[in-house]
Amino acid sequence: MMVRVRWRGGPLLPRLEWRTGVLALLAGLAAVSSAIVLAVDVSTDGMLAISRAIVVVVCLGATASTVHLLARRRVAESEAGLLLHLAALATAVCGVVQPDLGWQWVSASVLSAIPVVGVMHLRRWGLVSLTAVAVLGAPVVFAAWEPLSLLTLIASVAMATVPAVVVGVVWALAQQLDSARRAAARAAGVDELTGLLNRHGLAARVGPLVRSASRAGEHVSVVVADVDHFKQVNDTHGHLVGDQVLVAVTNALRGVVRADDLLVRWGGEEIALVARGEAGRVARTAERLRAAVEDVDVPGLPRVTVSLGTASALAPSRATDDTASELAAKLIDRADIALYEAKRAGRNRVCHSGAIAPPRAPAERDDVLGHAVELPVEAATDRHGDAARDGADVVVLPADPVVALPSPGAGATS
């Protein structure tokens, strides 16, 4: 997450990553605190009994770190780990060489807090090493100046234990939060019943697929499948059986598609496949999908069939996320038309829509596009290589003309 700090309407710190901002804030506090300590010691003529040279070094180091973090705006894990380790080592050294009891306690307390900040940036061994520096550093600070006593021993053990316990708790909470976020992300993109992508998941993954097809000069194709008479299944056997039928259909479809194809539960009993490949290939794939569902025979479940519609288009030359989503939506709409043609023709069959022109990026759009060119479609074949069986006809629907939006800056036309 990026934050912006504004001053008088303008961005003072644009695009500052929040974890980097926390590091910068802590470094800034260290610089200001050191400057205040130095000013008090100077104004009281050395009442604090501190080494001013050490305080000056700490103040300059913290100031330099603050400026560096604000300039970088976002630091990588390795860079944050280096800064935190240097800060821990510097704090321990200052606590050892500074002849002041108050400074000693402050150093030990800061050492306990540094690994907690490290939880936001470091993972596993980086966090372990930072915690080890804090756990070992605090007793060393106390042993340097305090005489050996029960109080010193208790304080040393406490200062060594607190960082490990706090970091362990915070790390466990952070892991649970990360797991919850990943689960929420999966839930947002995956259908709970079938495990297929849902519409959000398709929107997130269709861009890379279309760009891959664009680089290879390939078509993007869509198959939309709808379970025949699914309402009757629900009315006769109940919705629980209907859900089980959908899961069985999904498993059958999964056995046909390729690993890089996108299988989506588009809504209700409608499942869409988005894949790379020209019209002839997608027609053959659709027939294999139809035959796979027709062959499903699960004890206790009614046997069902699916009607399918397909559509394809050449991937756009400049495939952005927006044009990829636009292309997928347009292809699914066209495949839906072919699907309902298959329903009207008797169900349990494949119909193919005519090819459509791919959407163009804004920089490529002209004022007017010509009619889409219809591609020839090969006859659908089943898994054994024979011609389409059981009346699984392939119907080619005429392509609609595609009209582009006016290019930016073009005048309105009547």
UniProtKB/TrEMBL annotation:
<dbReference type="Pfam" id="PF00990">
    <property type="entry name" value="GGDEF"/>
</dbReference>
<dbReference type="GO" id="GO:1902201">
    <property type="term" value="P:negative regulation of bacterial-type flagellum-dependent cell motility"/>
</dbReference>
<keyword id="KW-0812">Transmembrane</keyword>
<keyword id="KW-0472">Membrane</keyword>
<dbReference type="InterPro" id="IPR050469">
    <property type="entry name" value="Diguanylate_Cyclase"/>
</dbReference>
<dbReference type="GO" id="GO:0043709">
    <property type="term" value="P:cell adhesion involved in single-species biofilm formation"/>
</dbReference>
<feature type="transmembrane region" description="Helical">
    <location>
        <begin position="49"/>
        <end position="70"/>
    </location>
</feature>
<feature type="transmembrane region" description="Helical">
    <location>
        <begin position="151"/>
        <end position="174"/>
    </location>
</feature>
<keyword id="KW-1133">Transmembrane helix</keyword>
<dbReference type="GO" id="GO:0052621">
    <property type="term" value="F:diguanylate cyclase activity"/>
</dbReference>
<dbReference type="InterPro" id="IPR029787">
    <property type="entry name" value="Nucleotide_cyclase"/>
</dbReference>
<feature type="transmembrane region" description="Helical">
    <location>
        <begin position="105"/>
        <end position="122"/>
    </location>
</feature>
<dbReference type="InterPro" id="IPR000160">
    <property type="entry name" value="GGDEF_dom"/>
</dbReference>
<feature type="transmembrane region" description="Helical">
    <location>
        <begin position="127"/>
        <end position="145"/>
    </location>
</feature>
<protein>
    <submittedName>
        <fullName>Diguanylate cyclase (GGDEF)-like protein</fullName>
    </submittedName>
</protein>
<dbReference type="InterPro" id="IPR043128">
    <property type="entry name" value="Rev_trsase/Diguanyl_cyclase"/>
</dbReference>
<feature type="transmembrane region" description="Helical">
    <location>
        <begin position="82"/>
        <end position="99"/>
    </location>
</feature>
<dbReference type="GO" id="GO:0005886">
    <property type="term" value="C:plasma membrane"/>
</dbReference>
<feature type="domain" description="GGDEF">
    <location>
        <begin position="218"/>
        <end position="355"/>
    </location>
</feature>
